[in-house]
Amino acid sequence: MIYLISNTPFDDESVEQILLCDIKFNKFNIDLSEFDALIVTSKNGINSLKFNSIILADILVFAIGKATALSCREFGFTQIYEAKNSHGSEFGAEILEKLYGKKVLFIKAKETISNLDIYFNQNGIDISVIDGYENLILKKDISSKPKSNSILIFTSPINVRAFIQNLGWDNSYKAVAIGKATAQALKPYTDPIISKSQTIKDCVELAKSLK
């Protein structure tokens, strides 16, 4: 059986989803027109703009991944740079030179692994940071634990932490990680396979190939 450990809905009858985290959006007020560029590394960054009824401005947006870029378009942004690299540190290096001379806003999760804001600060970028949302770990009954020999898909490091905290681990599990940071979180428990593309769809296809 394939299990998807994510709070992002995915419709596939052959995959069972386990919800272990919830998103809490934080209140803030910002005038996007005061900035030249916006960085978003998750569609939840855009969802936090919606949550706070932030008014759209025609600025350049740097987005990680297809899902995030799509959320940017749906919000109304038209100048969108979709990064070639979906891994945090590589994404930072890719867009660094494009940020010089710009006033930049970065909307991120309260807790992150990549520390992109520190990286940009250290490299002289004029950047303002907002913790637009945070991931909260839910309590789950042990009866939800996947059976032995299951294939598990993890979409973030906090989902790994939530799984271990709630359900523990079984050495018979195989794991698919959506990215390098998620894979690193899994290293103490297993040797995960990293999806070449950072989308849930591609992770599911990879998991199916392991059956």
Radius of gyration: 18 Å
Q: Numbering strands along the chain, what is their spatial order in the largest sheet?
A: 3-8-7-4-5-6
The helix/strand order is EEEEHEHEHEHEEHEHEH
Note the total helix count: 7
Query: Which percent range fits the helix content?
Result: 25-40%
Percent of residues in β-strands: 25-35%
Give a quick set of tags describing it.
5-stranded parallel beta sheet, 6-stranded mixed beta sheet, alpha/beta
Q: Quick summary of this structure?
A:
With 211 residues, this protein is of the alpha/beta class.
Record the SSE blueprint.
Layout: E1 2-5, E2 15-18, E3 21-25, E4 37-40, H1 43-51, E5 60-63, H2 65-75, E6 80-82, H3 88-99, E7 103-109, H4 116-122, E8 126-137, E9 151-154, H5 157-167, E10 174-177, H6 180-186, E11 193-194, H7 200-209
Parallel strand pairs: 1-2, 1-9, 4-5, 4-7, 5-6, 7-8, 9-10, 10-11
Antiparallel strand pairs: 3-8
Helix pairs in contact: 1-2, 5-6
